[in-house]
Write the structure tokens for this entry.
Amino acid sequence: DAGVIQSPRHEVTEMGQEVTLRCKPISGHDYLFWYRQTMMRGLELLIYFNNNVPIDDSGMPEDRFSAKMPNASFSTLKIQPSEPRDSAVYFCASTPDRGTDTQYFGPGTRLTVL
Amino acid sequence: GQSLEQPSEVTAVEGAIVQINCTYQTSGFYGLSWYQQHDGGAPTFLSYNALDGLEETGRFSSFLSRSDSYGYLLLQELQMKDSASYFCAVPAAGQNFVFGPGTRLSVLP
């Protein structure tokens, strides 16, 4: 199994630009999570999906952030417009079952907003 | 809501034993997990305790006391490659997963 795949691995953009992060979960996993990690705030859950449906987006910082999961094998996290304070590592993770606590993380996307 | 506390840093020498503690406050509790993260890498799952007691997996063990809202990760026979950050986490209804602030472990030769 290829594991959770994220792209791009690194993204450098300028303030005000739109940023789209992509994630392919492990095949057969019903749950997909988006996290953000910074030194100041640690690892924060932004949103999670179950069977492609957003279940809890209370961690999404503001309206500039949006996430979609059009099918079981693909999800996007979009920031529009981006700001320097959005600079962080964004992780996608998947798990086969809500009852299991083994989350499989992707390698992350390191976002830098200048 | 949920909150977890861990020491920010721990230092130990190769071959030693180290314990990383985690205390939590949750509105609903399903179990305590531990994750390891090397610099520049992604968190990887280490262990999960749903019931009180000690779970052993090789050099790593994890303990849970639900009555004390407390758990720990025990690393034995420390190796240089164990230098990493370690996070405790709780799955909880509604908010789903919440991670602790992490403990940075430095293993010295």
Notes: The interface with chain A takes residues 30-31, 33, 35, 41-45, 48, 87, 89, 91, 94-102 of chain B (CB under 8 Å). The first strand of chain B starts at residue 3 and ends at 5. Chain B has no helices and eleven strands.
